[in-house]
Structures are given as structure tokens and as C-alpha cells.
Amino acid sequence: MDVINALGRRKSAVARVYLTPGKGNITVNDVEVSKYFKEDTLTFIINQPLALTSVEGQFDIKANIVGGGIKGQAEALRLAIARALCKVDAEQYRPLLKKNGFLTRDSREVERKKPGQPGARKRFQFSKR
Fold first, then answer.
1. Span 42-51, average pLDDT
2. How distant, in Å, are the alpha carbons of 15, 77, 99, 110, 125 from that of 48?
3. Residue extents of the structural domains in the chain
């Protein structure tokens, strides 16, 4: 099996993943995953597709992530890992990942600020007199 690459996006974060057979090492931007994502909840989010398909420790994952915040980056990485697993064996992994919602791109983006008001939807206080 060669290197399998996949792309995941969330908000303004973009994660490119390279999956190779290995011992389960995950590196993000040339740093170990536990050092890059310090919170346990974020590492849990990243490992969800691997745990669901029970392939933890079978693949080495190298990821490049740019843009967004730490939570958006973790969710982009989760989508990229799920897509890469589908490329490995679509018949076995795809139905399970799709049922649990790991193959759906969360398309919610931040709405832009409009001119003449303080935010996207918020208005300045109205004064009648």
C-alpha cells in the first residue's frame, strides 16, 4: 500500500493527511499529536474514526494543518482521517463512518460583518428620540 492522502475542512481550517501502514504514530505539523492538541477532548475527536473502525495502531498519520482555531483544526483532521480510511477500504469502513457522521463536511462558516452595524446580525441601539 502506498501513501494515501486526503483533505478535511472545518470553518477556515484545512487539514491534509498522509496515511501509511505503521505503528499508530500521529504527527501534526511535524509535532506529536499530544503536544499539538493539548486538551484530551481534542485528541479524542481526532481518534474517533480510528477507534470506530478499530484500526488504532495500524497506520501512521502525518498531517499538515493551516488556518482556523484549535477546535476547527481538530474537526478538520477528523474528517481527513475518515476520508483517508475510506480510500483504504471503502466497502468495510465507509458504511460505519457514514452512519456516525464522520464523512459529512460541516459547512457552517462565520457570517461576515455588515457595514453600518457592529456585527453580522447585531444592530446598533435604536433611539426613538
1. 94
2. 16, 11, 13, 25, 45
3. 4-99
